């Protein structure tokens, strides 16, 4: 009788253990499934509009996550930073500079939920025109062309909000004129400098011929396969380096997995093919 009771108890314990294991496994699977179906929200600098969608599709394919919902909001880095500070529910912030992610990291440190910024790309600045030929221009002759075209309109992205605009401003400030002022100051004084909200809008102004010249991202030029006469890629040393940092702004495990892919060799190939410089 005692042996029978013992056997029954052992069998019951084994059955209970199996049920518990199955329950834990089902719970883990459910959690994984929930994470994969939960929307991943990315706040991305406007210059990424031509490359990030391809990276997202590559990530979903390579990781076999066809049902992963990923939403991207493109805007100037400064505008996105302000939205995040105001509580916008983004999971990842991909800025066009290093300053805004660094500020978010400092803010996160105060709340003990800090993530470290990471560099994911280095942008290139280009001068673009659909109305003026830039086929044989060099750094010096670009400066001369911009200086001598008295009636030309030139657009840059807002330097206060867009890192590409800040670099374009520095480039124009480095060009001296005969009088003691920079080309940037002269353009502003003559009201020939058209300020766009972000690099995407600056590109549209130049692409549609609304202005004569536009300082845009090389990636935008690459995306449309512009003719050589329509653009010149500025020498990287002629303007402040456009190092683009990102930061995870939520505790989503999917966000961390996507960032790993973004920074992997596979992810970096997308950037190189799109006209960005190697960050390695």
Alpha-carbon distance between the two ends: 73 Å
The CATH architecture designation of the largest domain is 3-Layer(aba) Sandwich
Radius of gyration: 26 Å
Kindly state the number of beta strands: 10
CATH topology of the largest domain: D-Maltodextrin-Binding Protein, domain 2
Which CATH first-tier class of the largest domain would you pick? Alpha Beta
Number of helices: 11
Q: Major sheet: size, sense and barrel closure?
A: 5 strands, mixed
The H-level CATH homologous superfamily of the largest domain, spelled out, is: Periplasmic binding protein-like II
Query: H/E series, N to C?
Result: HEHEHEHEEHEHHEHEHEEHH
Oligomer: single chain
For the record, the count of structural domains works out to 2
- In which range does the helix fraction lie? 40-55%
Beta content comes to: 15-25%
Taking strands numbered 1, 2, ... along the chain, how are they ordered across the largest sheet?
2-1-3-10-4
Please state the structural category.
alpha/beta
Summarize model confidence as the mean pLDDT: 84
Q: Which regions have little confidence, pLDDT < 50, spanning 5+ residues?
A: 4-11, 24-33
Q: What sort of overall outline do the alpha carbons produce when their principal axes are compared?
A: elongated
């Amino acid at each position: 009788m005692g042996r029978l009771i013992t056997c029954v108890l052992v069998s019951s314990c084994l059955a209970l253990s199996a049920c518990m294991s199955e329950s834990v496994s089902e719970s883990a699977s459910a959690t994984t499934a929930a994470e994969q179906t939960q929307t991943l929200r990315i706040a991305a600098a406007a210059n990424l509009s031509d490359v990030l969608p391809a990276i997202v599709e590559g990530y979903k394919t390579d990781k076999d996550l066809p049902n992963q919902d990923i939403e991207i909001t493109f805007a100037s880095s400064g505008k996105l930073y302000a939205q995040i500070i105001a509580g916008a529910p983004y999971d990842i912030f991909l800025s066009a500079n290093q300053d805004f992610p660094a500020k978010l990291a400092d803010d996160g440190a105060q709340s003990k939920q800090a993530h470290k910024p990471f560099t994911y790309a280095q942008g290139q600045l280009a001068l673009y025109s659909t109305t003026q030929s830039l086929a044989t221009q060099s750094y010096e002759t670009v400066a001369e062309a911009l200086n001598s075209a008295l009636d030309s309109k030139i657009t840059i992205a807002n330097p206060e909000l867009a890192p590409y605009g800040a670099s374009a401003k520095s480039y124009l400030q480095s060009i001296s004129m005969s009088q003691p002022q920079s080309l940037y100051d002269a353009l502003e004084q003559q009201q020939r400098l058209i300020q766009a909200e972000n690099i995407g809008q600056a590109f549209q102004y130049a692409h549609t011929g609304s202005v004569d010249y536009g300082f845009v991202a090389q990636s935008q030029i690459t995306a449309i396969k512009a003719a050589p006469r329509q653009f010149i890629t500025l020498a990287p040393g002629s303007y402040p380096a456009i190092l683009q940092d990102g930061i995870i702004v939520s505790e989503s495990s999917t966000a961390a997995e996507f960032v790993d892919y973004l920074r992997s060799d596979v992810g970096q190939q997308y950037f190189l093919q799109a006209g960005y410089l190697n960050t390695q």
